[in-house]
């Protein structure tokens, strides 16, 4: 196991996954307020994320940004992170060992941000955090209490924004899950100001 360093919620150095160290140009950390009520978890950075150093900046990010805006939120109101912080070669799914190597970083980030709701975007993060196989389209919008590290979080399952680009029928599933997420945080957050006016 290679050296790793974390400063608050930011991983500054990590050499745990040789294949990912080889394929990344940088570590892509979470983005957004460190006290966000709503935290989204994706799978891993793609080429554009690796290039810019921010999660969800490609076409999927545009879908997510537009969906947030439609609900009166901006990207700066939410935190967005990934299960794995380094780009897998050829945009393949992260391997089980890579997910495990990065898990402590995610748990630390979740504990420090302490969001009212964690929203998993797609199959990989949902299965990783629920630790079981999941039919995301069927379970989208469902809420679970899940223990991650030392803390328990409310987690809502959502399809990946990219799914809406390849299959238009996924759009309503995505929208309904996001509506549910915003309603849950709006209803349960005593601090409305963190979510803007909607």
UniProtKB/TrEMBL annotation:
Keywords: 4Fe-4S, DNA damage, DNA repair, Hydrolase, Iron, Iron-sulfur, Metal-binding. It holds the Pfam family UDG. It is an enzyme of class 3 (hydrolase). GO terms for biological process: DNA repair. It catalyses: Hydrolyzes single-stranded DNA or mismatched double-stranded DNA and polynucleotides, releasing free uracil. SMART domains: UDG (SM00986), UreE_C (SM00987). Residues 29-178 form the Uracil-DNA glycosylase-like domain. PANTHER family: TYPE-4 URACIL-DNA GLYCOSYLASE, TYPE-5 URACIL-DNA GLYCOSYLASE. This is Type-4 uracil-DNA glycosylase. It comes from Halomarina oriensis.
């Amino acid at each position: 196991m290679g050296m790793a360093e974390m400063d608050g919620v930011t991983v500054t150095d990590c050499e745990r996954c040789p294949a990912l160290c080889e394929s990344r140009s940088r570590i892509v950390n979470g983005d957004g307020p460190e006290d966000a009520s709503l935290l989204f978890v994706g799978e891993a950075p793609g080429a554009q994320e690796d290039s810019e150093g921010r999660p969800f900046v490609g076409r999927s990010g545009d879908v997510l940004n537009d969906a947030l805006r439609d609900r009166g939120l901006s990207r700066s109101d939410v935190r967005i992170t990934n299960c794995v912080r380094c780009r897998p070669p050829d945009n393949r799914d992260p391997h089980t060992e890579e997910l495990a190597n990065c898990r402590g970083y995610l748990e630390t980030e979740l504990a420090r941000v302490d969001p009212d709701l964690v929203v998993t975007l797609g199959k990989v993060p949902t299965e990783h955090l629920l630790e079981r196989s999941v039919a995301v389209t069927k379970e989208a919008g469902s809420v679970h209490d899940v223990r991650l590290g030392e803390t328990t979080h409310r987690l809502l399952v959502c399809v990946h924004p990219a799914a809406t680009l390849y299959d238009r029928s996924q759009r309503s599933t995505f929208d309904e899950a996001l509506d549910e997420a915003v309603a849950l945080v709006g209803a349960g957050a005593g601090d409305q100001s963190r979510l803007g006016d909607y």
